[in-house]
Amino acid sequence: MRSTILTALLVALALTAIPVRAASSDVTPSEQQALDALEAKANQAKPREQCFLYAKVMHQMTQLSLRLYAAGNVTKATSLLKQIQRLSHKVHLSVSENDKRLKNAEILLSRTTFQLTELLHSSDYRDRPLIKQTIADVNQAQNAALMEVFSK
After folding, report:
1. What is the value of pTM for the model shown?
2. What are the domain boundaries of the chain?
3. What are the tens digits of pLDDT across the range 35-63?
4. Closest CA to 97 of 147, 58, 138
5. CB neighbour burial string for 90-127, b if at least 16 within 10 angstroms, e if fewer
Protein backbone atom coordinates (compact mmCIF):
# COMPACT_ATOMS: atom_id res chain seq x y z
CA MET A 1 0.00 0.00 0.00
CA ARG A 2 2.71 2.40 1.02
CA SER A 3 4.82 1.65 -2.09
CA THR A 4 1.78 2.19 -4.33
CA ILE A 5 1.21 5.67 -2.90
CA LEU A 6 4.89 6.50 -3.20
CA THR A 7 4.96 5.31 -6.83
CA ALA A 8 1.83 7.32 -7.67
CA LEU A 9 3.36 10.39 -6.07
CA LEU A 10 6.60 10.00 -8.06
CA VAL A 11 4.69 9.54 -11.32
CA ALA A 12 2.59 12.62 -10.63
CA LEU A 13 5.70 14.65 -9.82
CA ALA A 14 7.46 13.46 -12.98
CA LEU A 15 4.48 14.31 -15.17
CA THR A 16 4.26 17.85 -13.82
CA ALA A 17 8.00 18.55 -13.89
CA ILE A 18 8.57 17.70 -17.55
CA PRO A 19 6.16 20.31 -19.04
CA VAL A 20 7.50 23.00 -16.69
CA ARG A 21 11.06 22.40 -17.89
CA ALA A 22 10.03 22.32 -21.55
CA ALA A 23 8.15 25.60 -21.29
CA SER A 24 10.88 27.49 -19.47
CA SER A 25 13.09 27.97 -22.55
CA ASP A 26 10.21 28.59 -24.93
CA VAL A 27 7.84 31.45 -25.56
CA THR A 28 4.89 31.14 -23.25
CA PRO A 29 1.51 31.37 -24.94
CA SER A 30 0.60 34.40 -22.85
CA GLU A 31 3.71 36.29 -24.03
CA GLN A 32 2.98 35.47 -27.65
CA GLN A 33 -0.68 36.40 -27.23
CA ALA A 34 0.29 39.72 -25.65
CA LEU A 35 2.64 40.49 -28.54
CA ASP A 36 0.01 39.50 -31.10
CA ALA A 37 -2.65 41.59 -29.36
CA LEU A 38 -0.37 44.63 -29.20
CA GLU A 39 0.55 44.26 -32.87
CA ALA A 40 -3.13 43.94 -33.81
CA LYS A 41 -3.85 47.06 -31.76
CA ALA A 42 -1.07 48.89 -33.61
CA ASN A 43 -2.43 47.78 -36.98
CA GLN A 44 -5.89 49.10 -36.13
CA ALA A 45 -4.79 52.24 -34.31
CA LYS A 46 -5.14 55.75 -35.59
CA PRO A 47 -2.19 56.95 -37.68
CA ARG A 48 -1.19 59.31 -34.83
CA GLU A 49 -0.63 56.38 -32.48
CA GLN A 50 0.77 53.70 -34.78
CA CYS A 51 4.42 54.70 -34.63
CA PHE A 52 4.57 54.46 -30.83
CA LEU A 53 2.65 51.18 -30.70
CA TYR A 54 4.87 49.57 -33.33
CA ALA A 55 7.94 50.76 -31.42
CA LYS A 56 6.50 49.23 -28.25
CA VAL A 57 5.91 45.90 -29.99
CA MET A 58 9.46 45.93 -31.37
CA HIS A 59 10.90 46.68 -27.94
CA GLN A 60 9.00 43.81 -26.33
CA MET A 61 9.98 41.44 -29.15
CA THR A 62 13.61 42.42 -28.67
CA GLN A 63 13.45 41.66 -24.96
CA LEU A 64 11.85 38.30 -25.68
CA SER A 65 14.45 37.55 -28.34
CA LEU A 66 17.23 38.29 -25.85
CA ARG A 67 15.70 35.86 -23.36
CA LEU A 68 15.34 33.19 -26.03
CA TYR A 69 18.96 33.57 -27.13
CA ALA A 70 20.06 33.29 -23.52
CA ALA A 71 17.97 30.14 -23.12
CA GLY A 72 19.50 28.64 -26.27
CA ASN A 73 16.39 28.80 -28.44
CA VAL A 74 18.06 30.43 -31.44
CA THR A 75 15.38 29.44 -33.95
CA LYS A 76 12.58 31.34 -32.21
CA ALA A 77 14.90 34.24 -31.44
CA THR A 78 15.85 34.66 -35.11
CA SER A 79 12.19 34.42 -36.06
CA LEU A 80 11.49 37.34 -33.72
CA LEU A 81 14.37 39.31 -35.26
CA LYS A 82 12.78 38.90 -38.69
CA GLN A 83 9.48 40.14 -37.27
CA ILE A 84 11.31 43.13 -35.79
CA GLN A 85 12.72 43.92 -39.24
CA ARG A 86 9.23 43.79 -40.73
CA LEU A 87 7.86 46.06 -38.02
CA SER A 88 10.74 48.53 -38.36
CA HIS A 89 9.63 49.16 -41.93
CA LYS A 90 6.11 49.82 -40.66
CA VAL A 91 7.48 52.28 -38.10
CA HIS A 92 9.46 54.05 -40.80
CA LEU A 93 6.33 54.37 -42.93
CA SER A 94 4.06 55.42 -40.05
CA VAL A 95 6.16 58.36 -38.85
CA SER A 96 4.28 61.59 -39.38
CA GLU A 97 4.41 65.10 -38.03
CA ASN A 98 1.21 64.78 -36.02
CA ASP A 99 2.22 61.68 -34.07
CA LYS A 100 0.98 61.68 -30.53
CA ARG A 101 3.99 60.13 -28.76
CA LEU A 102 6.75 60.44 -31.33
CA LYS A 103 9.49 61.25 -28.82
CA ASN A 104 8.51 58.23 -26.71
CA ALA A 105 8.66 56.05 -29.83
CA GLU A 106 12.13 57.39 -30.62
CA ILE A 107 13.30 56.59 -27.08
CA LEU A 108 11.94 53.03 -27.33
CA LEU A 109 13.67 52.58 -30.69
CA SER A 110 16.91 53.82 -29.17
CA ARG A 111 16.64 51.30 -26.33
CA THR A 112 15.82 48.58 -28.84
CA THR A 113 18.94 49.41 -30.84
CA PHE A 114 21.04 49.33 -27.69
CA GLN A 115 19.69 45.91 -26.69
CA LEU A 116 20.22 44.54 -30.19
CA THR A 117 23.81 45.79 -30.12
CA GLU A 118 24.36 43.97 -26.84
CA LEU A 119 22.90 40.85 -28.46
CA LEU A 120 25.29 41.28 -31.39
CA HIS A 121 28.30 41.26 -29.09
CA SER A 122 27.18 38.12 -27.27
CA SER A 123 25.86 36.16 -30.26
CA ASP A 124 27.39 33.47 -32.40
CA TYR A 125 29.13 34.62 -35.59
CA ARG A 126 26.54 32.81 -37.74
CA ASP A 127 23.72 34.92 -36.32
CA ARG A 128 25.50 38.26 -36.65
CA PRO A 129 24.43 39.18 -40.23
CA LEU A 130 20.75 38.94 -39.27
CA ILE A 131 21.31 40.93 -36.08
CA LYS A 132 23.31 43.58 -37.96
CA GLN A 133 20.55 43.94 -40.55
CA THR A 134 17.95 44.20 -37.80
CA ILE A 135 20.00 46.93 -36.10
CA ALA A 136 20.28 48.80 -39.40
CA ASP A 137 16.52 48.60 -39.97
CA VAL A 138 15.72 49.78 -36.45
CA ASN A 139 18.25 52.60 -36.84
CA GLN A 140 16.51 53.76 -40.01
CA ALA A 141 13.17 53.86 -38.20
CA GLN A 142 14.75 55.67 -35.26
CA ASN A 143 16.40 58.24 -37.54
CA ALA A 144 13.09 58.90 -39.28
CA ALA A 145 11.39 59.44 -35.93
CA LEU A 146 14.24 61.62 -34.69
CA MET A 147 14.18 63.78 -37.82
CA GLU A 148 10.46 64.29 -37.39
CA VAL A 149 10.89 65.22 -33.70
CA PHE A 150 13.47 67.87 -34.55
CA SER A 151 11.55 69.23 -37.52
CA LYS A 152 8.82 70.50 -35.20
Report:
1. 0.76
2. 27-150
3. 889 889 988 988 888 889 999 999 999 99
4. 147
5. bbbebbeeebebbeebbbbbbbbbebbeebeeebeeeb
